[in-house]
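Long-time lurker, finally posting.

We've been working with 6391_t:CDS:1 (Funneliformis caledonium) and I want a structural starting point before designing mutants. I don't trust myself to interpret raw outputs, so I'm hoping someone here can both generate the structure tokens and explain anything notable. Sequence follows.
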Amino acid sequence: MKTLKLCPQLTKDYISFYENEKTSADVIIRVGKEENVKDFHAHSFVLAVRSQYFRNLSFDENNFKETFGLLLISKEFEIIELLELLEDQLLNSPNQIHQNFSTTLQLSLESFNKLYEFCLKTIQERPEIIFKSKDFHLLNEDTLFTLLQNQGLTIKEVEKWESIIKWGIHHSFTTPTIDYNTRIPDVTLWTKDKFRDLAKTLQKFIPLIDFHKIEPENFYEEVKPFKKIIDKSLYDEILKYYIVSSKKSNVDNPKPEVPTSNVHIRLSSVLIELDCFQLLINWINETIPGTSLNRYKLTLLLKGSANGFTANTFHGMCDNRGATLTVIKIRGSTEIIGGYNPASWNQSLYINEPLSIIRESFVFKLNQKDIRQSIVGRPVADAVYTIENHPNNGPCFYGALYIKGGSHGDFKRDMLCYCDGANYGVQLRKTNSTFSVDDYEVYQVIKE
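Top reply, 14 upvotes:
Generated this for you. Predicted structure of 6391_t:CDS:1:
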């Protein structure tokens, strides 16, 4: 009975101690903003006893997940000072960021500028960190698509393929049986439904893989097992490529280079012959007086029938690659047209400078039966613009040739491409009607 009578007094003493003895408080909870701030003194012992959160929280260790959570809360409530402090805290632990890189990248897209810059720099310098990260599967579709569009990454194409396959498996099946630190799983016992589900998940990503850069043995081991998820026409095109290149047994040099007087082709075109390439190179040389002896190497960046016909694919594979030559076959016709852009395509210019004047650019129409009947058009003297960069379009030579996609975003399905002769002094077609693309190729032009 005496013990019970002591409890109320003991409780009263504890309350008095915790209310009045602030010097014993070891936790300060600060609430408010700017001048309207109030401090609440607390005791870690009481917090731990009464709260499971505080009981498990470590005040001494850098808890990465807790920091992430606080960072999101800071942004939600616009607590700028805390947000900057937490960003700096994360950046002081680069190893932990690397271990949770995909999560960090995903978070940085929420306007965390310091983290975003760190992630971009890391991806450019060490792309394997994200492609081999344990949380790669946490990337959302948009982030993964943007990542695969970056053609400047110094990582093998087969490693990209392995990563998206694992990502696709995780996002296709409720119980993915895959270890993200191992190789691609054995799929010999997969059902048709499994392949169908995976194909549906990865349909927008597969065209971003440049299969021509995958070594034949790697293609056989890593890609062939997933033949059922690849479009048949694309797969046949890849096989044709490997068969033709087998003479040299090196996918990076698919055919023996056949030099003409001043051009090397790394990959022969299915649209035009070498004599047409020679003519195009001669036209390039004519744009710069005194350079007729220059030799050039043409490297295939994009083939519509292999990589797709969307603006996203075009900009992902051709932006920021320097001078390019575009060759286009018009659907339902034998017409071959195209253009040369000595500057880089760059969809980001659309925001501030979508139109530009590039005097050395030109457009052309090739006559393969009689090459002497081919025509070239160069910017007229009063041309204000000659090149247009637009994220929703393909290569556009302003006032001459426009490659555009409509509701499908596809140059082959949407019949919205057209020609006019305003700025280049020639009419590439006898009609002003719109057309779609049967196939097209974009080559990087490098002076040797």
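Before you design anything, note these points.
Residues 321 and 344 are 6 Å apart (CA to CA).
Confidence is low (pLDDT under 50) at residues 247-261.
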